[in-house]
Amino acid sequence: MIDKKQRFNRFLEKDLLKLLKSGYSGLILGPRQVGKTSLVEYFLNNFKNTHKYFLQNPKTRADLEKEPEKIIKEVEAMAKKPIVFVDEAQKAPEIFDAIQYLLDKKQAQFILTGSSARKLRRSGANLLPGRIKRYYLDPLLWGELGLIKENNIKKIAINNINKDCSFPLEDFLVFGSLPGIITLPKKEQEDFLKSYALIYLNEEIRAESLSRKIGAFSRFLELAAQESGTSPNYSKLSNEAGISTQTIKDYYQLLSDTLVVEIIEPFLKNARKRILASPKYYFFDLGVRNVLARWPLSKDTANVQKGVLFEHFVMLEIIRRVRALNKNYKINYWRTSGGAEVDCVIDFGSEVIPIEIKSGDNARLSDLKGLKNFLEEYSSIAKTGYVITTGERKQKLSKNIIALPWNCL
C-alpha cells in the first residue's frame, strides 16, 4: 500500500531545478491534476525570495484581470529579484504583457503553469516568445512508478527514479496514473475520477460559453472517450450526439487545446495523403477516459476492454517518454487501404521503428501482417520491428521482429 503522503520524484525536476538555478523562466503545460502545482511548490521551498499567484482563487484572478500592472508594482517593491509563481496562468491572459515587461527588465524570474493553451491563443495573449522555456508535465510515467525492468529501444530508454509502486497492470488499465489516484485507497479512486470529469466539464462549459449546449457536449465527451484510440467517424458521431460534423471537429479541437487528448497522425510520406487522412485521438489518462466513457471502474472493464486499454497504456507511455526526453521524435500510426495496420511508428528522422501492441502473453508471426508489411515497404529506414505484450520474457520472432514484455520497452 502506498503512503497517502508519498511524493513521487518526477523526470521534469532535473530540468526545472537547472532552469531556476540558471535564472531563466519557464512555462509548464499539462492537464489538470498531473502535479504541476505540487512540483513547483516543492521546488520553491528551496528558494527564499518567492512570490505566488494562484489564479484558481477568484479574488486573485479578478484583481489581476482588472489591474494587470499590479504584478509589476508588487515585484518592483521587492528588494531582490524574486521567483514569481503564477498557477493556471491561462485564467488571466491579461497579465502576460506585464510579465514580459518584468522579464525584459530582468526584474523577476517566472514559473508559470497552465492547463489550456486555448484561452491564451484565442485571447491573443502575449505568449512570451524567446523569453520563456516551455515544458510539459504528464501523468506518471512508468519510470516514475518504478515499473521499468529493462530498456530495449535505446532512443527512448528511460530509468526508474522511484521504487516500484507495486500496482498490478489491471489497476493502471482501469484507474490510470494521475498522481492523486495512485495514493488513494481503491474505494476513493472512483469518486476522484468522477469529480475530475465533472470539474473538467463545468470548467470548459463556462470557459467556452457552452451552457446552452451542455447536453450535447456531455454526450460528445462520452462518445469521444468510447472512441479513444481510433480514427473517429465524424458523421457517425454527429448522428449519435445530435450535433453537426463541424461541431464534432470543433469539440475535438477543444479537447486537444485543453490537453485532454493526444493527436496521433498517420505515417505517410506523401504529404497530400497525410493531410487527407484522419488522425487518432487518445485520451491523456486511462482513468479519465474510462469514467468519461461510463465504463465500470472494475476488473470486468480490464478484462472486456483489455486489448483497447493495453494499447492505450503503451501508447501513452511512448508519447510521455518522448516528451520527458525532450526529443522531437514523431509518433504516428500506419494503415493501408488493404487493412494492414501498425499501432505505433516512432519516426526519428533517418530511421523509424514500428511497434505493434498485443494484450496477450505471446505474439505469433501470423498475427503480425501489418508489422511485416511495414518492414518490407520501408526496409531502407525500418530495420527492426517490435511487439509489446503482457508476457514476461523477450522473444525473437523473426530476423527483424522482437517481442518485448511491456515493462522492457
Structure characterization notes:
This protein has 409 residues and is of the alpha/beta class. The chain has 2 domains: 12-136, 3-Layer(aba) Sandwich (Rossmann fold), CATH 3.40.50.300; 154-408, no CATH class. It has 17 helices and 13 strands. The strands form 2 sheets. It has an 8-stranded mixed sheet, with helices on both faces. Strands 2-3-4-1-5 form a 5-stranded parallel sheet, sandwiched between helices. Helix 17 (369-377) links the parallel strand 10 (352-357) and strand 11 (385-389). The longest helix has 22 residues, at 186-207. It is globular. The chain starts with 11 loop residues before the first helix and ends with a strand. Mean pLDDT is 88; it is low at 271-276.
Q: Unreliable segments (pLDDT under 50, ≥5 consecutive)?
A: 271-276
Report the span from N to C terminus.
26 Å
What count of domains describes the coordinates?
2
Number of helices: 17
Number of strand segments: 13
H and E string? HEHEHHEHEHEHHHHHHEHEHHHEEEHEEE
- Per DSSP, what share of the residues sits in E-state strands of 2 or more residues? 15-25%
Main beta sheet, described? 8 strands, mixed
Radius of gyration over C-alpha positions, nearest whole angstrom: 22 Å
Tell me, rounded to a whole number, the average pLDDT.
88
Helix content: 40-55%
**What's the shape?**
globular
Q: Within the largest sheet, what's the order of strands?
A: 7-6-8-9-10-11-13-12
Main structural class:
alpha/beta
Offer a concise description of the structure.
By secondary structure, this protein is an alpha/beta fold.
